[in-house]
Every structure is written in structure tokens, then in C-alpha cells.
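Tutorial sheet, problem 5. The two components below are modelled jointly, 648 residues in total.
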Amino acid sequence: MSAQNTDTPLTRFGRYLRDNPIIPLLVFLFLMIALLEVLRPGIVMPIRAGRDGLISSFWVGNLIKFAIPLAMLAACQVLTMLTAGIDLSVGVVATVSAFVCATLSAVWGVAPAVFVALAAALAVGVVNGIGVGLVRVHPLIMTLGTGLIATGCLQVYQRLVINAGTHIPEFLAWLGTGRTAGMPNGLIVFVPFALFILWLMRYTGFGRLLFALGSNEHAAKLSGVRAWQVYLALYVLSSLIAALAGLLYLGMIRQTSLSLANPLLLPSVAAAVIGGTSIFGGRGSYAGAIVGALILRVLDTMLTLLQMPEGARTALFGLIILAVTALYVRITGTR
Amino acid sequence: MSRFLRKHAWVSGLAALLVVLLIVTKLIQPSFGASGLESIARAALPFAFATAGMAVVVIVGGIDLSVASMMAVCAVTAAVLMERMAGIPALMIVLSLGLAMGLINGALIVLTRVPDIVVTLAMLFVWEGAALLILESPGGATADWLEHAIRGSFVFDGLPKALLVIALGIAIIWLPIRRTKLGLSIYATGSDERAAFRSGVAVGRTKIAAYAVCGLFCAMGGLSLAALTGIGEPVPGPYLMASVAAVVLGGVVLGGGKGGLLGPIIAVFILRIIRTILTLLAVDPNVTTIIEGTIMVAVVMLGTAASLRGARR
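Model answer (C-alpha cells):
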């Protein structure tokens, strides 16, 4: 291990953080929460404002509740970024699935509506997968394009169903807004989902293929990986996750609109990047992305408290992505 | 003549396609004439400038995802400034603002060593936020002469002023660059960055300059947007995908080093006329959006497949 001694302490520290991004992230999360408590005493610890309870379970529940859809969309970004891709259609896919589900539930009933919503997402995922895997279009441009087409389709569809009215399925509303023992019901979906993604990335052949393709696509192909099949499966999976997140978000907001989940797109990329997933592929962790989503939600609360306008928030998220990526490039010295 | 055609086969083909599409339009709508041409040219204005900017950065080997956002920033700035001050100084401020934004994009790419696509994705949101900060909802006003500058025809009926603005704007900026060392550096950097560096091209400075030119074109696009609508609109329009598609259709290879600005500009008009034809055929405008999006994605897919085949050879 003599080679290690030649590295500068900064490089070694950088490698340590890279391998365990969750540790500094958790520290950062608690620092942010502490800062929030300083800004508005009593919001996290009601006892300081003279109310009951050491930690406000309402506040924690709210934080988790709004972080869940974001963390689910961040899963799409983590998985696609592992192969040096990105999925910019997730916001639109989530919106489409929510809108389709809400409008069709009023006509056909809940089960077919959910089925059609997932099928729509599947279609987008297949097109993405074909474009990225077979035609080799850059994922960013491909998913941006399919997102635009899906938005157009949604507008046409909206005019067809404009008179049908909407109906939010009860179980989605229960999942989105209900609470059990102070914690949001969304966790019932999210905990198994997160475990599944962690298992998928860590213990399955598919997960290893994603890492292999992202680290060195050429080497992976020479080792016999059929890249296009992996990409196809990946983008289909990403779209299905986005649809699921959209359904959950529908239950949470209990309203439909043509841009319901679109504002979640940029934060989902930011959450994945903050969570230590490299946008250049081959490195990433979903646990980090979950903490990243929580950090973004705390940041959001803070910016709301400071009465920061919408534009400043958007710009800030963009700067965060840029700064974190530049920091990774600087620390690891790779591109 | 035949040598010219062989050298510019792609652009000539595009021009022929444009003529065919114009004839088709005339067949569908016999009354289609100078005024129809004028409205197409006017609608093409912001697309043409966005595409010109995108083409320059694609030639240098990059891509700029923030064109639409930069145009939005310039449009709202123009609308806000022209409400308060004289037109010409406001125009100059907007143009230098575009140049500055392009410089910032390029400098960030060169200094942070983060790939173009990531930096400009982040900047897309930064500029979008900036536009919202300048003007929260559509508003402001533009000078009347700005609108007159692009409306109507010049000298005789068949030559729309908008077309003249496109030609002049792009020629004034691009031709001097193309003919000097900078233009050569841009093409050299785009075709092989390492070889260009070893031949003594200041690669970093060339890239920054290319992004600055893109920013300048975006400022023109933003100005034409403001002139078209008469107000400033802080939400970016659909110019990103459209410009990428027009650049690819125009014969500029994604990856850099090949192509010019004439092809992409013709491609812009082809895409606009397709929209006009769909409208004349009484296709639902929303369906038109879908068809347009599909055409753009298909163009980009075909272009990527073609450039991949070229690279393998």
C-alpha cells in the first residue's frame, strides 16, 4: 500500500468522502436543521417556543412527506447517472401518469386508470431506451425531446377529457396525506421502494451492469455486455419509477394540472448530485440521494422562511448542481 | 457549378427541399404569397438566432443547453429597459448582457473542467431563475421601432424585413469571425481538441469566445422575441430542442468541426414551413406540437446515427 502514501491528504480525504458520501451528508443535514431552528426558534423543537414535545413530529413528518416524491424521482436520476446518462423526462412522465390516473379514475374506475397511467410511462421509457441504447442519442437530448412530445400528447389528451372531471383515488389520497403514528403513510410505499433500489444497485447483476457501463462502456461491451438491452431496461424502469412518484404526488397534492410534477425535475437532479452520484457515471449511492432530497427540502423551508423569490430558488438549485459537480471534478481529478 | 454542388451537397439539398416545401405550401393554399412568406420569416426570427448560437458552440465541439433561458433573460431585460430608457442604449445593454452570459458559460466550462452539457444544464436553470428575478410575470414594453424593424417588407414585397434582419445579424457577427484566426481555431478545436492544442491553438480561449458568440446570438434572439410579442416573457420558450434539431438537420455534426451557419438557418425555415403546412391542413395546433417534436427527435436520432457511422469508418 505504498502507493497510497504518495497521495496528498486532500486526495485521500476526497476518496474517503467519495466512498462514504452519506457521512458528511448526514452531518450537513443536521447542520441545516440546526440553522433552521436558529432562524425560526421552535419550528423543529417546539419546547423552545414553550409548546410540548422535544422534537416536533409534525414538522419531521411534513419534511419526510414532501421529500418522498423527490427522493423517488432522484432514484431515476441516480440509476441513469450510473451509466453517465440522465433522465429529464421524469417530471413530465410523473405529471402525465398523475393526470391520466385522475381523469380516467372518474370514467373507468381506479384500477384501469392506474394501469393506463403506468402504460403511458412505459411507452415513454421504451422510446427513451431505444433512442439512448440503440440509436445512441445523448440521453439528455433524447429525454428532453420525449418530454416535449409527452407534454404535447398531454395537451391533446386534456382536450379530449375536459368534460369528464377528475377523481383522486382514495388510497392515493390516504397514502399521500394520511398519517400513522405521526409519520406519513407514504413511507409504506417508500421504504420497500428504497430497499428495492438499494438491493437492485448493490446485489443484482443489473446493478453491476449499470456500474460497469458507467465506469467504462467500452470495457463492459468487450466483456460481453449487451449495452442496448441494459439501457432499454434502465430507461423503462426509470419511467415506471417516475410514474409511481407521480401517482403518489397526485395523492399528496390532490389536484391535477398539466405541470403538476414538472417543478420536481431540477431538485431531483440536484438531490442525486448532492447525494454523491457522479453525473459522469460509475459512481453513486441511493442512500445519499435520499439524504440529498431531505437536505433540499430543509433548504426549501429555509428559503421560504427568508421569503426568497421563486427565481432565486431556481437559480440557486442550478448553482448547487454546478458547484457540487465542479467540486467532485476538483477532488477526484477525473471527468 | 458541379464542384460547388459537390462541396455543398448537404446545403444544396436543404435549399432544394425548402423550395419543394414552398411549392407544396403554394399548392395547398393558392393565396399563399408575400404576406405568408413574411409571417414565416417573422416567426422564424428567434429560432434562427437560437440556432445560429447553438451552431457555433456545436462547431467548437460543445453544446449549449441554456440558449432558451439566455433568450428569456435578454427578452425580459429588453422589455424592462425599453420601458424606462431610450431604445438604442437599451439595445446595446441587452447585446452586451448576452455576450456576458455567454462568456460566463464558456469560462465556467473551461475553468471547472466540467463537461459542457452539465455546466450549461446548470446554467439553464440559473438563467431561468435570473429571468424570473428580473420580471416575475410577463410585462414591460418594447420600443415601437423594434417592432417596425421586423414587420413588413423591405423595398419590394417579396423580401421580408425579418429575413433581412436574420441575414444581416448573422453575417455581421459570423463572417468576420469565420474569416479570421478565431474562426479557424473554432473549427480546429471542434474537429480535434488535442491536435488543436498541440498545434498552438489557445483551446480554452477559443471555447470561451464561441460561447460568447452564442450568447450574443441569444441576445439577438431575445430581442426579436421581445419585438414579436411586444412584452417580456420570463419563461423560456421551446428553443432548445428546436435549435438542436435545426443544427443537426443543417449538417453540423454533433461533436464539432464540421458544417456552417447557412445549413442550420435553412433548416430553421424548413421546420417553420412544415409547421405552416400542418396549420394550413387544419391540424389541431396541439397535434402540430407533437408532430414537430417527433420530427425534431427523429432528426436528432438520424443525425446521431449518421455521425456514429462516420466515426466508425
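Marking note: The longest strand of chain A covers residues 179-180. Full credit if you identified this.
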